[in-house]
Amino acid sequence: MKLVTVAGPPSSGKTSVILRAAEGLRASGTHLGVVKFDCLSGDDEKRYQQAGIPVKTGLAGALCPDHFFITNIDACVQWGKKSGLDLLISESAGLCNRCSPHIRKVLAVCVVDNLSGVNTPRKIGPMLKTADVVVVTKGDIVSQAEREVFAFRVKQVNPKAAVLPVNGLTGQGSLLLQRHLETARDVETLQDARLRFSMPSALCSYCLGETRIGPDCQVGNLKMMDLS
């Protein structure tokens, strides 16, 4: 079974892009499924179900969503294999820009949208910087000049990635994304696999549920601002 990680900021159009690419993949005989990682809630599972795509949703709740993802993704791979899938797509939303769910030797896709502003590619960090494919959505809402500047900024951050403009509403450009997804490697297990980027090195009192503010309540791995 092939595995692909798709990540991007909330409302960038990840689900719409995946559904459009899935149309072509399923027409060519690919049996695909989706596992959706979210923080508190999400309705995207219904969209996949309406499209007839097997889907599982994991909500991180009070846990760090990045840690929740990495401790569950291999079990999701095993679910996909047990379900007889040819391709499993992992969709991650709500991950902080410090992190990235992308895994070495697993095709990595980042979805960003033109409306987020031309400086956004520099802010997203490893989620975009370590991706193999960067999908840029909502290009029909901005000018040609804005589209070109945004694509240039993406290339500045990740010169090696394929940058694909895709319209999640009409499906324009999704065929190219489909071709990339078809090149994903087969994965039997993620045991001993490695992330492309490390998780934050944070373990402090607030990670453990502390809500009070003040130096007496702040212990562990802390970083203070230089306000001099």
UniProtKB/TrEMBL annotation:
One of its GO terms (biological process) is protein maturation. One of its GO terms (molecular function) is GTPase activity. Residues 4-164 form the CobW/HypB/UreG nucleotide-binding domain. Pfam families: cobW (PF02492). InterPro entries: CobW/HypB/UreG_nucleotide-bd (IPR003495), Hyd_mat_HypB (IPR004392), P-loop_NTPase (IPR027417). This is CobW/HypB/UreG nucleotide-binding domain-containing protein. It comes from Desulfosarcina ovata subsp. ovata.
